[in-house]
Amino acid sequence: MKQKSWIGRNWLILLTGALIGVAALVLSALGNPGNMGFCIACFERDIAGSVGLHSAGKVQYFRPEIVGIVFGALLMAVGRKEFKGKAGSSPVLRFVLGAAVMIGALVFLGCPLRMLLRLGGGDPNAIVGLVGFIVGILVGVFFLKKGFTLRRAYDQSKLEGSAFPAALLIAFLLCVTGICGLFRASAEGPGAAHAPWYVSIIAGLLVGALAQRSRFCMAGGIRDAVMFKDFGLVSGSVILIVVVLVGNLILGNLKSFSFYGQPIASADGLWNFLGMVIVGWGSTLLGGCPLRQLVLTGEGNSDSAVTVLGMIAGAAVSHNFNLASGPSVLAEDGTVTGGSTENGHIAVLVILAVLVVVSVLCTFVKKKEQKNG
Hints:
Elements: H1 6-29, H2 40-50, H3 64-79, E1 86-87, H4 91-108, H5 112-120, H6 125-145, E2 154-155, H7 158-177, H8 197-214, H9 218-228, H10 232-251, H11 269-286, H12 290-298, H13 302-320, E3 326-330, E4 336-339, H14 342-372
Antiparallel strand pairs: 1-2, 3-4
Helix pairs in contact: 1-8, 1-10, 2-13, 3-7, 3-8, 3-12, 4-11, 4-13, 4-14, 5-6, 5-10, 6-9, 6-11, 8-12, 9-10, 11-14, 12-13
C-alpha cells in the first residue's frame, strides 16, 4: 500500500490553520478589533464581562464565536460518533490551572491564537510572547516526561457531557433575543467592536468542526514536536501565520513594525514573556491550549468544561483586581503609559510558584504514591 505524503497526512491540520487565519481576517474586517479577529482569551474575557463577573465596561460582550466553536466541535463529534461524556480528572486543579492560563494570557493581552495573529499583523511584541510560550511548553514537557498526571477521567452519561454546551447555548439565545435584559454590552472599546453575530457564530462553527476533526492545538503541536519529533500538528500554526501575514499585506493592514502603537498590545517585554510562559506551561499540563479546551468541551469532556469555567473566572479576577495589562502608549516626549500593572506582576510571580507546586506534586509525589501503593 502506497504511503501517504506528508501533506496527505496533515492536510486537515493545514486546512484548519488556514481557516482560522481567514476567519480572523474576515471577522476583523467586519468589526472585531485589530489583530483580535479570533482570540479565545479575549472572547472569554468579554463573556465574563457580559454576564457581570467583572465591571470593566470596555470589555463586555457575549462573543458568539465561543458558542460556535463548542457546537461546531459537538456536531462533528456526534457525526463521527466521538461524542462521549467524560469527567473526574482533577476538576479543581483544572479550574485553577484554567484561571492561571487566563491571567497569564491577559498580562500578555492574548491567547496563543492572538499571539500568532499579532505576529502576522507585524507586532514584534508577539515574538517575545512566542518565546515565552515555547519555554512554558518545554517546562511542561519536562514534567510530562517525568510522569506528570492529573489522573484519568471516567465515563459519564451523554447528558453530563452535554450540560455545559446546553447552558452556553441557552445563555447565548437569551442574549441574542434580549429576553430579561440580563447581559451587558460595551458602548466603547474592544467589547463594542464586533462582527455581526451571525457571521461570528458561523465562523466559530466552522473552526470548531475542523479543529475537532484535525485535533488542532498550538500547545500540543510544540509538545509533539519536542516529545515525538512529529511536526504535523505544529504545521497548522505555521500556515495560520502565513495566511494572516499575506492577508494583512493584501488588505494594507501592515503599517509599522514597532513595539508601540500596535492594536491593544502591551510592550512590557519581561511580563509578556512570563505571561506566555504561564500559558504554555499551564496548557501543556492541561493537555491542550484554550481553543483545544473548547473543542474537548464540545466532545463531552466535562473536565475541559471546568477548565473553560476556570478561564472565565480568571478573566473576572484579572479585571476585578487590575491584573490585566493595558495597551502601551509611547508619547512624543518618550514617556510610556499603559502596559502591565504592578498587581499583574505580583500575580504572575505567584502563579509561577503555583505551577511549580502543582507540577511537582502531580509528578514526583504521585509517582512515589503509586510506587508505594
